[in-house]
Amino acid sequence: MERDQLVAVALGEQPAGLVIRGGRLVNVYSGEIYRADVAILGDRIAAVGDVDRCVGEGTKVVEAEGRYLVPGFIEGHIHVGATSLAVTEMARLLVPYGTAAIVTDFNEATKVQGPQVARYYLDEAKRTPMTVYYSPFHTSLIPTDGRAGVTLEQMDEMMSWPEAKEFREWNVQQHRSPNEKVRRAGEMAREHGLRLAGHLRLFMGGLLHASVASGAVSDHETYTVEEAVERIRAGVALQMRFGSAHWHEIHDILRVITERRLDPSLVMFSTDEQEIVDVRDHGFLDHRVRMAIEAGVAPMDAVRMASLNPARYLGVTGDLGGIAPGRKAFVNLVDDMRSFTITEVVYGEEIVARDQRYIGELERPSYPPEFYGTVRLKRPLVEADFDIAAPAGAGATAKVRVIGFHPEAMGTKELHLDLPVVDGRVEVDLGRQVVKLASVERIAGIGKHGVGFVKGLTLRRGALGFTYHPGPSELALIGTNSLDMALVGNRIAELGGGLVVAADGEILAEVPMPLHGVVSDASAEEVEVGMRHAKRVIADELGIDFISNYYRLTGFFIPGVSPELRMSVRGLLSVAYAGDQLKVEPIPVLVGAEAAVS
């Protein structure tokens, strides 16, 4: 919208396209709540308050009827793949919950197919009410099996895009990385004026201060109120996380405001990863605002944490963060400031959502053919691909490294367990909840794969697999037997990616995700139905019935989170801190085996 026209509407020289009348403005700038109307032209706000001068014969009127007018929310740190949706359908899902903007990296799709994918999705977002800010990720630079990684020249271009606001996920380990490309990328980010978004998991004291000194200005990996206090004192934007794999920490972290009484201006929300079913069952940032209010945070502060605070952090207050002249016209109509239900969403000159459902026009694009067909296996998988040979001379059991998992705890543990040996192969032990997991390279089709064991999933039969996880997004498989694992893997390859569940040689559920093997090209409604069914089958038929029983499993295949055991196409990985560096090393499945792993 031309600013001259916006000015003319504000002066009453020409009519607004739409006026919201009779609402109570939640003014995040002044901290007041008062009766005010909002005049809109195109996609911008022209005037707020008494706007009778802006009303003309053709002006549409939305009657707010005493409801609260709340600014659009900004999700400050999300990896979009967990929703299983491409951008248009993600907007269809999230806008009804008040989401005006997200900050993301498109890292998994970029690692699969390059930076042109991120550029496509950023352009796609412009045709929706949801603004997408960009945060390229340093791991895109790092080659993996079958993939070269983006070049520094490509990263430089990505950082120059107007949507780019951050470079993620930074800390002292990246600042002192042995990889010259990563170090240089940090320098490039500063040259482009981007923020260095932090990943400060378990950092306190010297490591935290060194990371902040290196440029890290935010953290979404805060777990305790003590960590939260130290981060705020260091000037770090605290992106409190509550997503499908992280259901606990926000309750403790909110005490930094309710009990410790620290200034909340550096506190905001993030989801990191959230499944589509969890969004539909709980909400999105509107749910986080409700949680904060229920925990004792003042409603005005809770709203600011979802709107003005992230806008200030990103430097986008000219567009978002509050309801004021010149800002984007994204207004949430909320019934009550404590129950906090968004009844309607106004974007531009239209009501685009009502009662948590999108009602506006939103056309899903036809995606380029090259976005498909990225699950390439060297050959179909067979049962023997998942065999783990017992050591020579083994008796009835063999001592094996096992990933230890508990659904109520974050992270994993390294366990050493004696597992049964049958016909020279180490087998699962369902009585002790020990099953197999495997990672199969699926981009170049080089045939590389790793196999190991995990304990604690309550998996009693069958297998499941998926090609999305926040990392290399290889073909990941978990199962009680090798036949079902092979069946699942081969079916995923036929689909071009997705989530597949099987038992006793029969496919029980599947959710295709053919775009890069990362997200679906279907509607949000179709994906929700498919994912609900798959999650129900995983719980009822296979036995994995804890919260987020799909997304929680993806964490086993992220290679760079410490201190834990992870699975990769190279086999088990030991991830541990060594001073200011993160050491990721292949480690044998068999305890006592040679340390060298191909």
Largest sheet: 9 strands, mixed
Radius of gyration: 25 Å
Structural class: alpha/beta
Low-pLDDT segments, ≥5 res: none
Number of helices: 18
Helix content: 25-40%
The coarse silhouette is globular
Count the E strands.
Answer: 29
Distance between the termini: 58 Å
Average pLDDT figure: 94
| Portion in strands | 25-35%
Protein architecture, described:
- This protein has 598 residues and is α/β, with parallel strands linked by helices.
- Helices cover 26% and strands 27% of the residues.
- The strands form six sheets. Strands 1, 2, 3, 4, 5, 14, 15, 16 and 17 form a nine-stranded mixed β-sheet that branches. It has a nine-stranded mixed β-sheet with strand order 20-19-18-22-21-24-23-25-26, with helices on both faces. It has a three-stranded parallel β-sheet with strand order 6-7-8, covered by helices on one side.
Concise structural overview:
By secondary structure, the protein is α/β, with parallel strands linked by helices. It is 26% helix and 27% strand. Helix 3 packs across helix 4.
What's the SSE blueprint?
Elements: H1 3-10, E1 18-27, E2 32-41, E3 44-49, E4 60-63, E5 68-71, E6 73-75, H2 87-94, E7 99-104, H3 107-113, H4 115-125, E8 131-134, H5 152-160, E9 166-170, H6 172-175, H7 180-191, E10 195-198, H8 205-213, E11 218-219, H9 225-233, E12 237-241, H10 249-253, H11 255-258, E13 267-270, H12 276-282, H13 285-294, H14 299-306, H15 308-314, E14 330-334, E15 342-347, E16 350-354, E17 357-358, E18 397-404, E19 413-422, E20 425-426, E21 434-440, E22 449-455, E23 463-466, E24 475-479, H16 482-495, E25 498-503, E26 506-512, H17 524-542, H18 551-554, E27 564-568, E28 571-578, E29 581-586
Helix pairs in contact: 3-4, 5-7, 13-14
